[in-house]
Amino acid sequence: MIPAGFGNLEAQLWLWLLAMIRPGAAFLAAPVFGAPAVPVQLRLIVSLGVGMAALHASPIVMPAGGLFTLAGFVLILGEVLIGLALGFAVQIGFGAAMVAGETIGNTMGLGFAAMIDPGSGDSSPALGQLLSLLGTFMFLAIGGHLMLAQIIVESYVTLPPGGPMLSGEALKGLAMFGGSLFAMGLSIALPVGFALVLVQLIMGMLSRSAPALNLFSVGMPAALIAGIVLLAVMVPWMADGIIEALQTGLAMADRLAGG
């Protein structure tokens, strides 16, 4: 016989499970949380903590027949969609650092130097990995993980489970915001990339004035040395650009949370 104090335990567990769906989907698509290096168990615990806080922000009403019904399936689908949209908006801002690293690496001649990205598990240029790690540090330094959790909790007020889903205008805004990824990445890479383009132009002029000069043996080391020096000088300004891109992604997630 179940003790009287545990009579509503099953219903409470189902509420917690439903409350975990939106944070879990958001953390799956968001930077840092969605990295393969983060254990699934830790991600589930954090999703449960955020979901329990969301229960106090907005009451969740379970469908009459439970989650294993058509209404329950639509409810789960809406929660997954909202969570993925919030996390993906932040991921777009974070991806600007990777775009900047790939742009600078290709200009320096390091496009062939690749390593495994722990964030995605795929091969990525070395400089892209460097700026991705810098973006991770900046994301944690500005409290982006806490801001994302706050946005998720606040989204339960404007977009309660079972209530209105994301509008078409909100999804269109997210798609248009994805187009700004390359603009943000190029703006981060602009100080170093433009200087490296000038180095390449000077090497081209030298090759025209001295055809006997072996440009491959001279131009690549010159571009590499110039890129390393410029990176060492411009990293503080590039960090500011990465922070601005991350804040833009968080602001977009906040607008999506508003419906």
Short précis:
The chain is mostly helical. The protein has seven helices and two strands; from the N terminus they run H-H-H-E-E-H-H-H-H. It is elongated, with a radius of gyration of 24 Å.
Task: Give me some keywords for this one.
259 residues, mainly alpha, two-stranded antiparallel sheet, 7 helices, 75% helix, 2% strand
Can you put this structure into words, describing what you see?
- With 259 residues, the chain is mainly alpha-helical.
- It has one domain (7-257).
- It is 75% helix and 2% strand.
- It is built from seven helices and two strands.
- The protein has helices at 9-29, 40-57, 70-108, 126-141, 144-158, 168-209, 215-257, and strands at residues 114-116, 123-125.
- The chain has a two-stranded antiparallel ribbon.
- Strand 1 and strand 2 form a beta hairpin.
- Helix 1 crosses helix 2 (40-57), helix 3 (70-108) crosses helix 4 and helix 3 (70-108) packs parallel to helix 6 (168-209).
- It is elongated and about 85 Å long.
Q: Give the mean pLDDT.
A: 81
Cα gyration radius (Å) = 24 Å
Distance between the termini: 45 Å
Number of H/I helices: 7
Structural shape? elongated
Number of strands: 2
List the uncertain runs: none
Q: How many structural domains in the coordinates?
A: 1
Reconstruct the topology from this structure.
Blueprint: H1 9-29, H2 40-57, H3 70-108, E1 114-116, E2 123-125, H4 126-141, H5 144-158, H6 168-209, H7 215-257
Antiparallel strand pairs: 1-2
